Amino acid sequence: MRFDVITLFPEAFTALTESGVSRRALVQGLYEFKAWNPRQFTQDKHQTVDDRPYGGGPGMLMMYQPLKDTVDAIKQDIAGELSKEKAQTHVIVMSPQGKPLTQQKVAELAQKSHITIVCGRYEGIDERFINSQVDEEIAVGDFIVSGGELPAMMMMDAVIRLVPGTLGHHLSAVQDSFSDGLLDCPHYTRPEEVDGMRVPDVLLEGHHAKIDAWRHAQKISRTQNRRPDLYEVYLADNAK
C-alpha cells in the first residue's frame, strides 16, 4: 500500500512516520509514504497556492492549478513503478463536508493499493479541483480544525492498522471497537485488585466460552448505553 499526501506542512507527518506501530510498519515496508508540497508546483516566484474567493467572503481558497499539477506528478510517479494502465490513485480530500469516516470505510480503503490524500487549508479548495480530480471527501467528525493534516493522519493510522503484519496479534484489529458494529468491552490487567476494585471473576476462571459470552454482553451493554445510535444500526443489521 502506498500513501501520497498533498500538504503545505509535510513535517507534520513525522508524528505518524516516526512513532508507534505506524513507524514500525513503515520500516518493515508494509506501506509507503510520500509527502508532496503543492508550492513546488506553482508558476510564480512567490509560490502562491491560495487566492480570494469569487463573490467575496472571508479567508482564502486553495487554487486549482497547483493541486492539479501535484496530482498529475503523483500519477506520473506511480506510473514509473507500474504500467500506465495501473497508474491510478484513489484521491481523497479531508473535509468537514465529506462522508463520516467509519471502520467500514477504513476497511474498504485498506484494500486499495494507492491512496492520495489532499490536506486542505484556509477556507477550503476551489470546487473545480474537487469536481474533476477527487474521488471522495471524508470527514473525521462534525467539527473544524485548521487543516487536513491531523484528520489525514487519523485516517492513515486507522488504515495502516488493518494492513497485515502491522499489529502484533492478528486479532487486535478484529476485536477493536466498531469492527463488528459495537463498542469494545472493558479490559483489565494485573494486579487482580487495586484500590478496592477487583477484576471480574469470569476473567480469572479460564473458561473461554464464558469469557467470550461475558465480553459480548459487555459490548452490547456499553454500546446501548453510550452510543444508542450505533446500537440501533447493530440491531437493524442483525435483524436481516
Q: Brief description of this entry?
A:
With 240 residues, the protein is α/β, with parallel strands linked by helices. It is built from eight helices and nine strands. The mean pLDDT is 93.
Give structural notes.
The chain starts with a strand and ends with a helix. A hairpin with a 2-residue loop joins strand 8 and strand 9. The protein has two domains: 160 residues, SPOUT methyltransferase, trefoil knot domain (Alpha/beta knot), CATH 3.40.1280.10; 46 residues. It contains eight helices and nine strands. The strands form three sheets. The protein has a five-stranded parallel sheet. A two-stranded antiparallel ribbon has the order 3-4.
SSE diagram, text form:
Layout: E1 2-6, H1 14-17, H2 20-27, E2 32-36, E3 50-51, E4 61-62, H3 64-79, E5 90-100, H4 103-109, E6 114-119, H5 127-133, E7 136-139, H6 149-161, E8 193-194, E9 197-198, H7 208-226, H8 228-238
Parallel strand pairs: 1-2, 1-6, 5-6, 5-7
Antiparallel strand pairs: 3-4, 8-9
Pfam family, one: tRNA_m1G_MT
Domain tRNA methyltransferase TRMD/TRM10-type: 1-232
Binding site for S-adenosyl-L-methionine: 120, 140-145
